[in-house]
# Entry
Amino acid sequence: MAATAKEHSFFEKEDRCRRVFDWTVGKYGGVWHMCTPGEKQPIIFKNTEDFKYAMTLVAMCAYDCPKVKVITFEIMSNHVHFVLCGLESEVLTFFALFKKRLQRYLSERGERTDLTYFSCKKPIPVETLESLRNQICYTNRNNFVVDPCQTPFSYPYGANSYFFTPKAKTQKDKLFGDLTLRDKRNLIHAREPNYPESFSITDGFFSPMNYCRIDIGEAVFRDARHYFNKLSKDIEAYRDIAATVGESIFYTDDELFDVLRRICREKYAGQRPTLLGKNEKMELARMLHYDYNADNAKIMRMLNLPIAVLDQLFPPSRCAILSRLNTLSKSRRE
# Structure
């Protein structure tokens, strides 16, 4: 029993994670986070067919760039995130191929989407074990923080739902070799279906299990519980990543409330936020707005402050006002 306890001790697990990270960097030449700008950018993937093609496109580019290994990725409506292994020049080639084929797909569909901004000229190097953990979690929770109907395990357009989910790993509807030539061409939107017959297809796209090194992604965490805690609780780490990749960090209401409670413990002797005085609430409102990118509606819910006061303190954009009015009008009709 003593040997078993030692084998599964915190330090044994942490040492194993560190060795996996060192092996990955040595084997592939580096690990990188690549992403395209998302804020104020036009929608690229407009429907389910677009998203499914993007999933298959990642598989095609990974197969055609064998020196690049995908640890995880996520496709958002107007931007993408990749965590990749390989030399910097190789991951740039991977992304250039992805962009070229995406532009061709959009052109064939008659879309006039301008992909000039859709670029990642400088991949972000992932230089430590903890950084890799944070980059994986940041990528895998990307849709979760903007869509209240999703969890990091339910969003289908990325590798996120395969992490520590055994059932997802084995799920497949059919193999690429089972398709007719016409269906193969329709799947990849190309005439030459030069991809492995053994590639599994799930929900109309190549499964990430065909090409993603999810085994590496999982192995840099001590266990599934460690991954889940990083994914859902270690939210402060993602603010620095967002600043590095040029994004604004977003938190769910629950995450923001945890931040607020921590601040109140440190600054206001643990007093409940809604019971603070006006000056203290205004100080917290500024902190939530400037440090945590909370909009006025969230600050109102967190601190029980009148929306009119917050609009005066942080004047919303015209788009935000129209969106709020539309939401209010819809709720009244319902």
Notes: The first strand starts at residue 31 and ends at 35. The longest helix spans residues 88-108.
